[in-house]
Amino acid sequence: MAPTTANWHWKNKNVTPWAKSWFERELVTISVSGEGEEEASISEVTYVEGDVELGQRKSKLITIYDCKVELKWKGTASDGTAVEGKLTIPEVSHEITLDGLSDYVYEWSLTTSSSPAVDAVYKLARARFPAALEAKFLLFPTALVDTHGKDLQINSTQTSRTGTPAPAASGSASTPAPAAKPVEKKPAKAVNSTAIKVDATFMASADDLFSILTDEKRIPSWTRAPAKSSAQPDSEYSLFGGGVKGKYILLSPPKEIIQTWALQSPTWPEGHAATLTTTLAQGADSTTVTWTLDGVPLGLEDEITRNIQGYYVHGLKSIGYVQVSHYTPSSSTSTKTKRDVPPPSIGSSPQPYVAVTLAVLALVAAFAVPYVYK
Description:
The protein has eight helices and 14 strands.
């Protein structure tokens, strides 16, 4: 069976035990430190519940997972006190990590008795652990595909199980084999694509928004993950802990950013990059940011639109940027106008009626006078 045909059908592999081991191995490498002598780290993954599967449909690998993760963490206070606590993350899933449909929820508890020094470590853990954990969670789908994808997909170098072995070459054993031709790299396949656009208006200046979208030190505040960004043309950048990568093409502070954009996801075509143009239009008291992504593979429009809205727009809102909603009156609203009242015409004037009335009264008086004096 041809590889393209074999990879078209639905396949599924449960990898829950592997996923549990991955979380136990990777999450305990996380450690953070404060501005003083405080430090904290994940000490143990105590519980992982849920299902993790890798599926294939129409030659695409799909990660399917929804897990609850419970951790223990420890730290050292500035006065040397050992601090311990627990952390539960009710949902680590494809929908949160890749689709951005909702935010991670963290349920914290402090095991050590409270004191000013202990509370400082607790505050450090609550502030720094989420970004570090979410950076790890972004790596999970890629690790899942890299480890188990080969078990589901058949490539052109694999021998078909129903194929007939090729006959052995005839001739003397001493005949030297022809030199192997160098393998030429095939150009990346053209991807049918389209463009999407997302815009949002924030109560902030264009300068401030341009800075927080490009400054390597400020980006992690809204992506909640490590970032790489020198904000120079022809320089590479990395957002969301490596979840999005690309290269800056043009930066025109504070009005426009043009950059290549590639999602590090099993659903994104390998070697393909879209072009993200971010424009910032400042008004009197707010700035409208428009993200236009050209080159989105057909079929991924809804997913990528949700990602832009969830990770970019909601990310900025999550750190205090107020989104403005402008009200536009309906154009169908009609306005009533007063009907002009025409001025009274000359013929309708009451003056002629008054004159006639006076004449009649005078005539009556003339006839009545003789009778009065008799």
